[in-house]
Amino acid sequence: MKIFIGFVKKEFLHIFRDVRTLIILFGIPASQIFIFGYAVSTDIQNAGIAVLDLSNDEITTEITSRIESSDFFVLKERLQSEKEIDEAFKKGVIRQVIIFENGFGERLQKEGVADLLIIADGSEPNVANLVTGYTKSIISTWVSENSNIQNSGIMSIEPEVKMYYNPNLESQFMFVPGTITIILVLVCALMTSITITREKENGTMEVLLVSPLRPIHIILGKVAPYLLLSLLVMLVILFLSWIVFHLPVQGSMVLLLLETILYIVLALSLGIMISTLSKTTQQAMFISLLGLMMPTILLSGFIFPIEYMPEVYNYLSMIIPPRWFIVILKNILIKGTGLAFIWKETLILFGMTIFLIAFSVKNFKVRQQ
Amino acid sequence: MNENVVEVENLVKKFGSFIANDNLSFEVKRGEIFGFLGANGAGKTTTIRILVGLSPLTSGKVSVAGFDVTKQAEQVKKRIGYMCQKFSLYEDLTAEENIRLYGGIYGLSKREILQRSDSLLNRLKFEQYRKRLIGDLPPGMRQKLAFSVALLHNPEIVFLDEPTGGVDPFTRRQFWEMIYETASKGVTLFVTTHYMDEAEYCDRISIMDEGKIVALDTPSELKKRYKTKTVEDLFVKIARG
Amino acid sequence: MIKARNISKSYNGVTALDSISFDINRAELFGFIGPDGAGKTSLFRIITTLLIPDSGDMQVMEYDTVKDYRELRKRIGYMPGRFSLYADLTVEENLNFYATIFGTTVKENYHLIRDIYSHIEPFKKRQAGKLSGGMKQKLALSCALIHAPKLIVLDEPTTGVDAVSRTEFWEMLKKLQKEDITIVVSTPYMDEADRCDRIALLQSGKIMKTDTPGAITKSFDRNLFAVTAKNRFNLIQKLKEYSEIDTVYPFGDSIHITFKSVDRESELVKHLSDSGISDACITEIIPGIEDTFLNLMKPAGL
User: What is the reported pLDDT for A171?
Assistant: First the structure.
């Protein structure tokens, strides 16, 4: 055990001595968060809206003018029928359409309840959320004010929100899971494969082999520091996205960390596998970058949604672990769902990990060829 | 005709306050095999980098093949050849491709390259290896080819770094015969090596220590002067003070 | 200490080692002398259990190098051709690391490395990559010794190191021998052979001869002469023309020759002066290792 700790200590020394790489490691996720962050607007002002008032009564006019008079919205258009909605969105000047049902005012006064539909442009999910959020709050303010004054029983308006273009509201914060997925592959696979091949190149591997160190010690010793480092990078990303975008982890933090560890172990074993396949650090780098980074960026669904890929690529993407991990992250981080929704992905990753570990331990040579 | 191919006068090279070359003066004659010796860190590499025009000097005057290395570095580079033990030829290219590459670098015409590579391979009896990758040739053969390639553009002086280190004794002899032959044609050979038995082959040797040349003469003369049997003993005696 | 019988190894049909047998005694300084590509590194990898021979047996300290590799790995100190140090770790960190992976501490075995390490101790905070060749060599040796092995295997420890450091290095090895450590070393440099107790001359995967350096040079079966003249190239040409001469090899400032059957020195001098070399001087000399190596190599032909 002492031997093993000594080995791990040495690995940490390597890592800390290479300050440049460390800076890149933590710099890339940070800068990515900021770059994406500034592309996402968190304020709305004078957002264009349209109203389709099928009731056209006193109350709908009042609510409309209340919304219109706020600083957030500018009424661009009054629509006459539902058919005009599509065209209105296509013009690109409005963020949402507010639809009052037929007989809105009458129903509200008689039954105390009326239906309101908000259709928002989902192509920018963040903006859509803000716009609909503001609209709902204006309406609820109006409702509470008027309930008191008119004293005509309890009123409630339940606005229903629908998204145009992006009905599932794929969040703009998708870049957070994407960034995590890529960085972890980069740190784990690339870095471990490089450190192992570097030992081969330097000839130090020969001395390590001609020592009582077992291959499993060497592998674990190489892997342990990067496991910790990757977790740290992951936490930095989460912290930054929370500070900068107020994006909390929606689901269970424990589950998130466990899944992350699983993915890290997977990526590390990928790194070890790459190192057993390559003779020089250059080869290891190329295999990692071209064989892992590129598919991760292109096929994981981070940039190009998997649903829209040609079928071949869809199948191809199934063999790359990041595809599954992104789904897991999306669920825990953004949707806040639990293991029930992601057990399948977890199982796939788990299977891949077992396979890779077995493969690399078996292939790690106690001797030379 | 200028009989000195290398002329160094009061060469000083400083890196900050560190003096790598401390007021060196020496000449190397045409057709001479000159051994340039010194311990690690004695300042040899610095001097050679200055001689081949890769590094500026702090003060002094250095001319190689009749050209000033600071003002006419390009002229100097055209007239020198270089061969070191390790990375002289590209291992993943064939013998022929290596020759073509070097010929091209030195601006030889296609016809010249073809002519010279034929005569070169012929002389070395290498025709059958023309299409073989350098990496697949035995080390001794590689070495001989590397030397011939360094001579391809008819340089006036060739710098050799540990030319026969690790080569089997027989090939080594052939190699030195090639060097003698080259020298007899008036080409100067500037040899650096850590292996003192290699130095015994040189016409004259200089030994550097802490940036200065502390001995310069024929090996036999120096051995007599310092009362040692071999250049190795001589070197150790001088370097240990 | 080491007992090797008929060790052979080939890579993709190219023979690296061809049925090699030898014995190395305890506390011996044993040298494998041979050019690059003679098979030195392959042999050393077999000794250090890194490589499995295609055929043959080898016992090191009575352990089989194939079966008992785990036991052997605890007991051998190995210094591969390229000094295997971590360039980004300091001198001290390198040494500590190698001590730890062998389950020991620097303090425990400091007495073994004191003489060697004291040369580099002033630079212990320096990164190994920034050391000179001689210092790297000393550090690598310290690292190979730190677990107090009974056998150290040094593959070309003196390549790329200057003559002063090399001399110091051999002196250190001599001292280690007195600590009852067996030392196996390889070098392509014939002039280092005299530093060893016994040597094996290795060429093209075969051992041509194993003996003490003195006995090996004594086995040179003919008289050897050194010829000198000012113009060496011309001298070589003329010597080669002379029909009674068997071998002509340049050796530093002289040319070493042997005659075919009868030694004809005076006739040779006359032949040379007839050919215009008047300053030729011929003396009989005692052959060195390199002369013997050439002599043994010759029948293999080139």
Answer: 62
- Chain B residue at shortest CA distance from C289: B169
Give me the interface pTM, i.e. the ipTM. 0.82
What backbone phi and psi angles, to 5 degrees, belong to C85?
-120, 160
Helices (H), A151-288: 175-185, 191-202, 204-209, 215-245, 253-277, 281-288
Q: Which of residues 33-52 of B touch C (CB under 8 A)?
A: 38-41
Better-predicted residue by pLDDT, C109 or A179: C109
Q: Which carries the bigger pLDDT value, residue B37 or residue A112?
A: B37
Q: What is the mean pLDDT of residues B82-104?
A: 83
Please, are residues A193 and A271 in contact by the beta-carbon 8 Å criterion? yes
Kindly give, in sequence order, each residue whose CB lies less than 8 Å from that of residue C40, ignoring residues fewer than 6 positions away. C32, C34, C155, C156, C186, C188, C202
| Residues near A246 by beta carbon (within 8 Å), at least 6 away in sequence | none
The pLDDT of residue A366: 67
**Residues of chain A positioned with their CB less than 8 A from the CB of C51:** 367-368
Q: What distance in Å separates the CA atoms of residue C73 and residue A208, rounded to the nearest whole number?
A: 10
d(CA C200, CA C211): 7
- Distance in Å, alpha carbon of B181 to nearest chain C alpha carbon: 6
Interatomic CA distance for residues A309 and A85, integer angstroms? 29
A132-166 pLDDT, tens digit each? 888 888 888 888 887 765 555 667 788 888 887 76
Q: What is the pLDDT of residues A226-237, one digit of tens each?
A: 899 889 988 888
Q: Is C170 on the interface with B (CB under 8 A)?
A: no
What is the CATH class of A47-164? alpha beta
Query: What SS3 class is residue B18?
Result: strand
Contacts of A5 in chain C (CB under 8 A): 100
Would you give the DSSP letter of residue A284? H
* List of domains in chain B: 1-79+155-213 (3.40.50.300), 86-140 (no CATH)
**Mean pLDDT (chain B, rounded):** 88
- For C90, nearest residue in chain A (alpha carbons): A13
Nearest to C163 among B170, B173, B196 (CB): B196
Q: Is some CB atom of chain C closer than 8 A to the CB atom of A198?
A: no
Q: Which of A2, A18, A205 sits opposite C103 (nearest CB)?
A: A2
Q: Determine the Cα–Cα distance for residues B146 and B150; give it in Å rounded to an integer.
A: 6
Question: Which ranges of chain C have pLDDT less than 70?
Answer: 298-302
Cβ of C159 under 8 Å from any chain B Cβ? yes
Q: pLDDT (tens digit, 9 = 90+) per residue, B147-198?
A: 988 888 899 999 998 888 778 888 888 889 999 999 999 999 999 988 888 8
Give, in degrees to the nearest 5, the angle at Cα C129 between C123 and C135: 50
Higher pLDDT, A71 or A368: A71
Binary contact (B168, C203; C-beta < 8 A):
yes
Per the structure block, which two tokens stand in for A225?
Answer: 């520091």
Burial of C13: CB neighbours in 10 Å, binned 0-12, 13-18, 19+: exposed
Beta bridge partners of A49: A75, A96
Distance (Å, whole) CA C108 – CA A363: 36
What count of CB pairs under 8 Å joins B to C?
101
CATH 3.40.1710.10 in chain A, residues?
A: 47-164
Cβ of B134 under 8 Å from any chain C Cβ? no
**A178 has a pLDDT exceeding 90:** no
Q: Whose structure tokens read 């899971």?
A: A177
In chain B, % helix, strand, coil (3-state, to 5) comes to 40, 30, 35
Say whether C88 and A367 touch across the interface (CB within 8 A): no
* Residue of C34, C132, C189 lying closest to B40 (CB–CB): C132
CB atoms closer than 10 angstroms to residue C11: 10
Residue for token digits 């051992």? C207
